[in-house]
Amino acid sequence: MKESIFITLSIISIMLLLSCSGVEYHHKRWSEEEIDKWYIEAGWRSGANFVPSTAINQLEMWQADTFDPETIDRELGWAKDLGFNAMRVYLHNLAWETDKEGFKQRINDYLEIADGKGIKTIFVFFDDCWNDNPKAGKQTEPIPGVHNSGWIQSPGTQIVNDSTKWGNIESYVKDILNSFKDDERILFWDLYNEPGNTGQLNKSLP
Hints:
Layout: H1 2-20, H2 32-42, E1 47-49, H3 58-62, H4 69-81, E2 86-90, H5 93-98, H6 100-116, E3 120-127, H7 157-160, H8 166-180, E4 186-193
Helix pairs in contact: 4-6
């Protein structure tokens, strides 16, 4: 099941990369042979979701004041020691909106650390899980004993459910994809984690 999900997402990533790079694309689904070829070349991947222990959520991970390369380096080193060679890492649109170039530089810094450990990265753009109405700046303190107490949705229902606000989100996705479309340190892109969670159901699909 996990293998098929990874392969499906990789196909989506290739489609996006082609469209962003200006390559003519006819919405042709990959053949089984093309899928097998990609999977063989990618090699066996073992990993986990990753956020450094000093960040309560994905936004705190990426904001300038709280980006923590020392902890990232140390903890990805532990991942390497465990035999992991891939990590799934969440991005957040607010990190881009408040500091576009700084955010992209921090993404590159993260990729340099991960690549130095032999770890490929799967970036996640959007997420419907946990706390709504995300805000940039200082994040909440952890609530002891509460799983994901400070995790936040991206971009949040106020944007997801209002199509007049999608233009900025489109610009965010295109900017990140165009900036890193040829980066071999990225295994593939996960467009949306659990769309429809937290009561959204089909509202997130458009």
